[in-house]
Amino acid sequence: MNNSILLVALFGVAVVCAAPGAHKLRNRAPPKAGCVQPAYTESLSEENQKKLTEIWKDYKVGGTCYIEQAKTSELLDSLPEKEREELLARPPIPAFFAGIKRETILQFDAIYFNDTIAFPDKLKQLDELAEKILPAENLKVYKEFREQRDAVRKNYADLLAKLSPAAKEADAKVEAMIAERFAYVDNLDEKVRAELFELWDARPSEPK
Predict the structure, then answer these.
(1) CA-CA distance, 144 to 122, in Å (whole number)?
(2) Is 80 exceeded by the pLDDT of residue 187?
(3) 197: how many CB neighbours lie within 10 A of its CB?
(4) Over the stretch 90-99, which tens digit does the pLDDT of each residue have?
(5) Distance (Å, rounded) from C-alpha 171 to C-alpha 195?
(6) What are the φ/ψ torsions at residue 70 (nearest 5 degrees)?
(7) Which domain holds residue 161?
(8) Count of domains observed in the chain
(9) pTM check: above 0.70
(10) Radius of gyration for the alpha carbons in the chain, expressed in angstroms and rounded
(11) Per-residue pLDDT tens for 117-134?
């Protein structure tokens, strides 16, 4: 998987996985509090860019986005085969990396992939690097994005803190099941995964 996708994951941006059909699997997971308009907007045709922007135009940071996620999933499923294939084959990058050389992006990757750096320290170092090397316009987008993500994280932390003991226990169990599910799929034989992705990709959107 492209490093830029993993860097996006650090900030919690919703992305389409490079593996065919992978979005089908991920769409089955309960939506998180972290909701933003997908980073791949600019990879769509002009018409579908407008549709996706329309879906997310009324979303307020910190709110739930079940409707937006559902409509986004429907839009992806409705894409012409060629456009969808091109989207899946072209990993998206964060908007603040638009027009940035790969050598610069790799400097951000070097921080993200350093397992010896704690998450809060990674964010601090990424902020410092952004201030140092991103052009003014990109830096502006980066800061706006970071503010949005910080607001989402705070909202999630606040909601988590307010959960009843029973809800906290249930949340922990659901998170564990989701992690186990993805781990199980990741450990399958590559050919078996390909068969499953093809099956999930063809699955009707209506409930069973």
Answers:
(1) 18
(2) yes
(3) 19
(4) 555 677 887 7
(5) 31
(6) -65, -45
(7) 3-201
(8) 1
(9) no
(10) 18
(11) 998 999 999 999 999 999
97 lies in a domain? yes
Of the pLDDT bands very low, low, confident and very high (cuts 50, 70, 90), residue 173 is: very high
Rounded Cα gap, residues 191 and 193, in angstroms: 5
**Domain presence at residue 206:** no
Whole-angstrom Cα distance, residue 99 to residue 117? 28
Three-state secondary structure readout of the chain:
CCHHHHHHHHHCCCCCCCCCCHHHHHCCCCCCCCCCCCCCHHHCCHHHHHHHHHHHCCCCCCCCCHHHHHHHHHHHHHCCHHHHHHHHHCCCCCHHHCCCCHHHHHHHHHHHCCCCCCHHHHHHHHHHHHHHHCCHHHHHHHHHHHHHHHHHHHHHHHHHHHCCHHHHHHHHHHHHHHHHHHHHHHCCCHHHHHHHHHHHHCCCCCCC
**Considering the domain boundaries, does residue 208 fall inside one?**
no
| 58 falls within a domain | yes
For the cut 60, the answer to whether the pLDDT of residue 149 exceeds it is: yes
Nearest of 62, 64, 38 to residue 51 by alpha carbon: 38
The Cβ of residue 166 has, within 10 Å, a number of other Cβ atoms equal to 8
Cβ of 143: how many Cβ atoms within 10 Å? 15
